[in-house]
Design a protein that fits this description.
By secondary structure, the chain is α+β, with helices and mostly antiparallel strands. The chain is about 50% helix and about 15% strand. The chain has 8 helices and 5 strands. A hairpin with a 3-residue loop joins strand 2 and strand 3. Helix 2 packs across helix 5.
Length: about 210
């Protein structure tokens, strides 16, 4: 069992500096993946990354979104697939299995429906419930400002740091960190992450 995120950058052609978001994307994918062979950027603004610990897939999707939304005007569309991995190649684009198929199929659906985040595990009741939660979570995430996105990114990178310590990293006060986290609905998104982990805990044994 593994997870695969297939995505693309929204509004990439309208960015002031394509080089800026591309370097940010590559740094982000390198952060969320265990090795370079497990992620790839293709067709300019599309990407795929394998998150081998599928319990972390939602949090890493949030991290990718936060990283890209630190750049004004940009956003990201992502499809999470959880399933088997039947073939591991030297590059992610040549690997195969249920997780890859689910992610790729769902991504094409997202583009048509203009949705920014969804999941497919092949288990309808789990998919239906998690996608409702994701839809509600996107009400907050799709409205992050660059400052809100930055504090979410830092909070995920440094889960043990206090608000005061996080503030020191970007030269803002503790109360400003608190305000930005609240505006980003960080507590609610982390609660959603906790719910996601509970739901995927039984995927391997769940009936269709």
């Amino acid at each position: 069992m593994t997870s695969v995120i297939t995505g693309d950058i929204i509004n990439s052609r309208e960015a002031d500096s394509p080089g800026q978001w591309l370097s940010t994307l590559k740094e982000t994918l390198a952060y969320v993946s265990v090795a370079p062979k497990y992620w790839e950027v293709f067709r300019g603004d599309s990407f795929q990354v394998e998150i081998q610990d599928y319990y972390n897939a939602f949090r890493m999707a949030v991290y990718i979104k936060a990283s890209l939304r630190t750049i004004k005007g940009l956003d990201v569309r992502m499809a999470i697939g959880i399933g088997s991995k039947t073939h591991e190649a030297s590059t992610i684009s040549e690997s195969n299995g249920g997780a890859f198929i689910f992610s790729g199929e769902l991504f094409e659906t997202l583009k048509k429906e203009k949705k920014n985040l969804a999941i497919k595990t092949g288990i309808h009741r789990i998919d239906e419930e998690l996608n409702l939660y994701f839809k509600l979570g996107l009400i907050a995430m799709d409205n992050w400002t660059p400052n809100s996105a930055e504090i979410v990114k830092l909070s995920i990178e440094n889960p043990k740091l206090s608000q005061h310590e996080l503030g020191k990293l970007i030269n803002i006060k503790q109360n400003t960190v608190s305000e930005r986290q609240k505006r980003a609905y960080l507590d609610e998104i982390m609660a959603l992450d906790h719910m996601y982990r509970q739901k995927v805990d039984h995927i391997e044994h769940a009936p269709e």
